[in-house]
Amino acid sequence: MYTLGGDTPILETAASHPRGRQSVLRWTCPVSHTSGWPRPRGRWRTRRRAQQGSYVVRKPSLTGVTVLLVDDDPDELALVGTLLRTAGADVTAVAKVEDALRTLQNGPPRVVVSDLMIPGHDGFTLIRRIRRMAEDGGGHMPALAISGFDNADQRRYALEEGFDEYLPKPVHEHIVTTVARMVFPRRRKGEIHG
Predict the structure, then answer these.
(1) Please, which residues have CB within 8 angstroms of residue 168's CB and are 6 or more apart in sequence?
(2) Are 115 and 70 in contact (CB under 8 A)?
(3) Alpha helices for the chain (secondary structure H)
C-alpha cells in the first residue's frame, strides 16, 4: 500500500465487478492532495466523487489467469504481485531466473512478466530458455518485459529476443491492462472464434 504524506492510503480496496469482467480499484486521497493532479486518461473510465475525494478506476479482470512474475526488487515484486492478484490473477512471484525456470517445470503459466535487469541470469536469458521450450511446455506463452529503462534500443532488443510486450517502470498504472490485453486479445470485427 502506498501512502501520501502521513497515513493517507492511495490504494485502498478492490472488489469484483458484478458481471465478473472487471475489477474496481479505489484510490483514495484527500481532496487537498489531489488538487493540481492530472486526471487519469486513456482507456480508464473514471468518475470523480467530490464528496468523498476519490477516483474510481475500472480495470479488466484477470480471474483465472496464472502469472509468473520475476523481479529481483522485493518492493516491486510485492506491489506488482498485489496489483495482479487484486485483479484476480493467480500469481507466482520469484526473485531469480533459476527459480522461474524451476517453476516452469511444474507447468506453464498463462503469461510471464519479467524484469530485464536481474543479477546473475537476466530476463533475456529467461525468455531465450522459454522460447526454446516445446509449444505444449509453454514455449509460445505471452511474455511481458518490464524495465527501469525506457529507450527504443532496449525495447527493440527485448521484442527481438522473444518478449511480446515491453513496459517501462513504473508499471503500476498499466500492468493489469497490459496483461489483460496480452491474454485476452480483442476480437476484430467479423473474426470468428470457435
Answers:
(1) 146, 147, 148, 149, 150
(2) yes
(3) 31-34, 74-86, 97-104, 123-131, 152-161, 175-183
Place of cell 492478484: 85
Where the chain has pLDDT below 50, the residues are: 1-17, 21-22, 24, 28-37, 42-52, 187-194
The one-character DSSP state at 164 is S
Handedness of CA 138, 142, 145, 146 (dihedral sign): negative
pLDDT in tens, 3-29: 444 444 444 444 444 555 445 455 544
Domain 66-183: homologous superfamily in CATH: Response regulator (3.40.50.2300)
The confidence score (pLDDT) of residue 58 equals: 64
Provide the grid cell at 29. 486521497
Angstrom distance (rounded) from CA 158 to CA 187: 26
Burial status of residue 75 (CB atoms within 10 A of its CB: 0-12, 13-18, 19 or more): exposed
- Sequence ranges of the domains in the chain: 3-60, 66-183
69 backbone dihedrals φ, ψ, rounded to 5°? -110, 125
* Cβ atoms < 10 Å from Cβ of 79: 19
Per the rule left: phi > 0, alpha: psi between -120 and 50, beta: everything else, 186 is beta
